[in-house]
Amino acid sequence: MTPGSSHACSLVSGGPGFECWGSDYSNQASPPWGQEFTQVSSGANHTCALTNRGLARCWGDLGSGMPSSP
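^ thats the sequence. predicted structure below, dont judge the formating
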């Protein structure tokens, strides 16, 4: 499990590979559809994950120097 300021995400079997819960006001707890993830890390108001193809994806509040997807 990886907690952010007001949300948390955890790897699970099946589906996108993890689930998030808690605050979603910046869409930080809403993973992109149609992708499977193998690792996940939550920041204050954003979440980043590694796809099963080795690509990094980030979503949520990506302002103030937060990472964006390559």
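The CA atoms of residues 46 and 66 lie 8 Å apart.
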